[in-house]
Design a protein that fits this description.
Helix content: 40-55%
Strand content: 15-25%
Distance between the termini: 35 Å
Number of strands: 6
Largest sheet: 6 strands, parallel
CATH topology of the largest domain: Rossmann fold
Number of helices: 10
């Protein structure tokens, strides 16, 4: 049996996925959770073969959760998203994600993808892969990416500084640099632009 965990903050979608995948004779849904933090902790407890992660979830997004799950050796991750952008695909690949598929993927095809990922293969949606080849690279540094991601989550600069272990002035410098690169008038505008591009 391929032991699987599903993480999605939309209860209807999570329940539907769990029900449909449970009909497959060789797939067992051992748990379903509603956020990235729970996905990481549940994967550590159950040690599944595959973890299906929604991209946009509270606390940790799917890519951040996948990175932690991979680091802990707690299963192979597949990102399932309705907001698939090439920049996001690049982030996912950097986090050692084993699969990246749109939510429009039929359940039968998703089951086939789960099997291939459980066998050690990697599956990337062909349309996303083609788009990623022509997508410009992010102009942001790793730290600029971090501060914009937290800005997009609604954190104030002092909270970002505390969360990243940086001086408040350093965070402001990173934000100013990111704003200049993205031609944004405010840090919020910069965060929105980076998010739409799939860079955070």
């Amino acid at each position: 049996m391929i032991r699987t965990i599903i993480a999605d903050d939309e209860e209807l979608i999570r329940g539907a996925l769990a029900a449909l995948l449970s009909l497959e004779p060789d797939i067992e849904v051992v748990a379903d959770v509603s956020n990235g933090v729970a996905a990481v902790s549940t994967a550590q407890v159950h040690g599944p073969d595959v973890v299906l992660l929604d991209l946009e979830m509270p606390e940790l997004d799917g890519i951040e959760a996948a990175r932690e799950i991979h680091s802990a050796g707690s299963g192979r991750a597949i990102i399932v998203t309705r907001h698939a952008r090439p920049g996001t695909l690049k982030r996912a690949l950097a986090a050692n994600v084993s699969g990246f598929v749109p939510k429009s993927t039929p359940a039968s095809k998703l089951a086939t993808i789960i099997r291939s990922v459980a066998d050690g293969e990697r599956y990337i949606d062909v349309h996303l892969a083609a788009a990623a080849l022509t997508e410009p690279e992010s102009p942001l540094t790793a730290r600029e990416t971090d501060v914009l991601r937290l800005t997009h989550q609604g954190l104030a600069t002092k909270q970002i500084a505390k969360g990243l272990g940086l001086a408040h002035g350093t965070v402001r410098n990173h934000l100013s640099s990111a704003m200049a690169k993205l031609h944004a008038a405010t840090r919020t505008e910069a965060a929105v632009t980076a998010h739409r591009s799939g860079w955070i």
